[in-house]
Amino acid sequence: MEASSQGVAEKGFTASVDKATDDIEKSTTVNQQLVEPVKEVRMEETCEEMRSKPPPYAYVETNETKPLINKGNVDADSNGIGSRHQSFNSVKSEETRPSSRATKYRKRSTSASNKKFNRISMIIADYRGEETSRRKSMTPFEAKKSAGVQTSMFSLYRRDELWMAWTSSIHIPLLFLVQILFIILFGCFVRYDPKYAMRNNFDEKDNVDSSHHHLVRVYSMFQDVHVMIFIGFGFLMTFLKKYGLSAVSLNFLISALSIQWSILMQGWLHPHCEDPQVEWGECPESQIWIDINTVSLISADFATATVLISFGVVLGTTNPAQLAIMAFIEIILFNVNEYIGRNLLSAVDAGDTIFVHMFGAYFGLACSFMLYNKKAAESEKAGANHISDLFSMIGTIFLWMFWPSFNAGVAAEGDAQMRAVMNTYLSLCGCVLTSFATSAFFSPTRKFSMEHIQNATLAGGVAVGATADMMITPVGALIIGSFAGILSTWGYAKLTPFLAERCRLLDTCGVNNLHGMPSLLGGCLSILLAGIATRKQYDKYNGDGSDSFHEIFFGIPEGEGRDAAWQAGMQAAAIAITLGIAITGGLVTGLIMRIVGAFSANKENRENRVSSKFGLSYSDLYDDNGYFHVEEEETA
């Protein structure tokens, strides 16, 4: 058979039309005569990489049953697969071809090859011309059947391509639907707070002054917390060298989603009547109203911080759809947990160490456990460079400056709020010194690590939050911050690698070290300080005035079983419930995210089964190019 094919080639391929099918089936022999020896390209090298190289290159199929393909037939479709299927279909014989062997791609210079490709193209063109003539002689039914056979496979392929494109872009309809849902719900339930945002005379006097004082008192701290959410958290996560745009942008997106959803959730847990002067329990009608003011906005920011803490755990390994789902579920669980802790257990947590930092950290770690993939842990892009570290320090400085407002924002007005500001500030100062010292101590070259400086210097603000408004004394605040800095730095240096290797916990930002362990420390301190609290400590110079002790601990007068020991027990119960809801909810949410990731995986991901749990291909992990247009860097 090989000799016969050589004879066909030597006669200039002048065989009759009846033998056209045989010529195409024996294209391997033709290739051996026409194509000069070339170097093999590794099978792992993708078509995308080949197209990125400068010409001249051409792809040659050495399969025994498939014809040679001109490089011009490979278009910009994904991996060139769509165009390759199209070219096969256009010249495919009606006869059943034998099963093909593995296709090998070869690279060759185009010198003296244009003529050879033209000769092959002439064979194909002749066959097409004869095939067209044959079709003209067909009956309409036969022509329709023949066309359907040739186009069916291509149509199925294109439908599959469109389906895969939309499933990998599921975040587009998801975000539209979520925003439409928010618009409907806000229209049905949300209104301005009649007491502060609408003119009234409920107290038989104009409310202009009270509204103004409320705004002045709350808005400054609300703005500080707002800056922490959008600039502090956003830029803190830009330490990844190729994920800076995504970190800031997705932080922006998830924050906007979480704020709207949290306003609704908090409003449903704390409803109001149509008449603002009537308590909900005495409300004659069943219509629920959500009254919003500046306190509602700052509370929504606190809830958003919880989601951003969890976002730091899975940074760079999840797609926008997964993050939106995580935020949606976490906001529900956070508000339920906070309602249980504050309203039912009367737990004290001025700086949200328990309800924000602890919940967000262990919720995110539970999600990460369900999404763990060793490929992500070994990615070379999961690192920093000089510029990304510099941008990350901007976030650190903003968080460090405004953290006192975070811890004092919802503390009781007056002396308690004043103590919250001072205790947080002193704790942060002590944390900085020990973080720097411990970072150099753990370094073999005794140099500072930017990873430690960017994060561990903030641990003092987390650790002191639950006790920020308590009588911990200035020296106590320094001690808490100093120990938190040591603990956090040790976690980054020693614990994080251990958890990734032994416990399947991939923590991109080291959230366990900045928020997790310091929050456990702060929670334990709140149990201790609540258990030893006395009125003499809090009202030493108060005499018969208002009771600061009663105000901070929600009233624990002697008798009725509500004493200092009872309050310590409630603190412990709040910690246990928070950990339980966070870990359980995180595991379930991580499972849902895993399913969504597999469903929305892009084409390369589906074919190679790499990191399918993240919905990202291996090349898109920790890379802005996954979901953002990135301008090419100019070279000097």
List keywords for this structure.
disordered N terminus, 636 residues, mainly alpha, three-stranded antiparallel β-sheet, 62% helix, globular, Ammonium transporter fold, two-stranded parallel sheet
Structural account:
By secondary structure, the protein is an all-alpha fold. Helices cover 62% and strands 2% of the residues. The protein folds into two domains: 2-165, no CATH class; 168-274 and 288-535 and 545-626, Orthogonal Bundle (Ammonium transporter fold), CATH 1.10.3430.10. It has helices at residues 2-10, 20-25, 27-34, 47-52, 81-91, 114-136, 140-167, 171-189, 208-236, 244-269, 294-313, 320-344, 353-371, 374-377, 386-408, 415-442, 450-455, 459-463, 474-502, 511-531, 535-538, 548-552, 564-599, 603-608; strands at 39-40, 60-61, 105-107, 190-192, 290-292. The strands form two sheets. Strands 1-3-2 form a three-stranded antiparallel sheet, with no helix packed on it. The protein has a two-stranded parallel ribbon with strand order 4-5. Helix 10 (244-269) packs parallel to helix 12. The radius of gyration is 33 Å and the shape is globular. The chain starts with a helix and ends in a 28-residue tail after the last helix. The relative contact order is 0.09. Residues 1-17, 27-117 and 605-613 have low confidence and may be disordered.
